[in-house]
Write a structure and sequence with these properties.
Elements: H1 5-19, E1 111-112, E2 131-136, H2 150-160, E3 165-171, H3 181-192, E4 199-207, E5 216-220, H4 232-241, E6 246-250, H5 260-263, E7 273-277, H6 284-293, E8 299-301, E9 318-323, H7 328-336, E10 340-343, E11 348-354, E12 357-358, E13 362-363, E14 368-377, E15 384-391, E16 395-401, E17 408-415, E18 420-428, E19 433-435, E20 439-441
Parallel strand pairs: 2-3, 3-4, 6-7, 7-8, 13-20
Antiparallel strand pairs: 1-17, 2-9, 4-5, 5-6, 9-10, 10-19, 11-12, 11-14, 14-17, 15-16, 15-18, 18-19, 18-20
Helix pairs in contact: 2-3
Length: 443
Amino acid sequence: MRKLPCLWLAVAWLGWAISACDSGGGAEDASDGFTQDGAADGDGDQGEDDSGVVDDDGGEVDDDSGQTEDDGGQGEDGSDPQTGDGTDAAIEDGDGDEPEDDGGPADDEGQAEDEGAVIGPLAGCVEGDFFPFHGDLHAHSTQSDGDDDPETAFLWARDEAHLDIFALTDHMEQFIWPLTEWGDCKDLADSFYAPGSFVALCGFEFATAWFGLSGHNNVFFSADLFNQLSDISGFYDQLAACDTCIGQFNHPGDSSGHNWNDFEFHAGAGRNLAMMEFNTDGDAWGMFFQALDVGWHLSPQYNTDRHGTYAGANYQRTSGFFLREATREELYDAMLHRRTFMSHDRNSSIALKAGSCWMGSRLSGVVTLPLTVEVQDDDAGEGFASVEFFGPSQQLIHTTDCAGANPCTATYDYLVVGRTFVVARATQADGDLLISAPIWAQP
């Protein structure tokens, strides 16, 4: 039975107080800057490999945001990020100091040249053998304002839609009665989770309705619900304090005010507010660059935000993730390190690299980015029209004519003269779009 919209308004305070919806844990004053001399490892000292390259065992060597080695997204005690237990898996600044680049706006100075490509010290480079997986990270059930119960949703996603990844994200303020709903959702997700074949999650959708609606955000891998009596700044503070959490901007611009105060940057939340949806009636493309230009490090998603019945749901458009295998740990790693893409065609994928460094990498000491984009569709008859490279402020850098080829490879050498980023967009012959995560770079 669908809940009445006024129910949560009447008893929200009581529900929050009883369920103690606090994210817990102290906030880390970490930021998302680039490194100069390679990433620090978990003990705060310089790692032995000061190139900052991630090796293929899933251990993370990131940028000067101080990402500790997360071994595939688990806590230091080996806990599962879905449960949120063992929140010592914090991503800390290795030396406790603020990096030189605090995640502020990129310099709109990147220029393109067709000279020999050279990447300097590979600080912040993420390498590995990753494969495309598709899923939906925004869906609702009768636990909030959806039409189908949670079990029906998971069954449909796994057995009918044949998704690799599926997350229920009911409205947090409606997890009020019965008080066991949040735990029940996570238990149900655990029962559907099949490592290697189907990744099931239970997240929640946060809204700042109490203080004027500035936007909706999904939260994943949290042990607890947040305090709902928060404005957007309070939400960011809670996200920053949650070591295991991953956040997402939901359906930007789909109604008035859904712009998070023009994407005002929050350095603490910049660490783990990692993704933005493109499923919206607003200008997702323009708002994506608006957020990137002010300093957010985001990768794109395309989710359904399903509220109706799941029977017959169209999952042609999906979120894409580059993982080693379909596990929660790999999904966590891809989300945290912005290795995602959006696709209007679930059979297709787009991968942007600079040399061997995957999209999501944050490179420093760079002279030139040797960019490569690989796009492909499992349907042989689905060709590609073009691949475009974009820099800050939606500046078109270069276009490759694919002439209907499938797969299509596009290359370009991009001279880095200031802090910058590059995003790739592919257009299929039928007009379907694919958008990559950025690569960030500075000299």
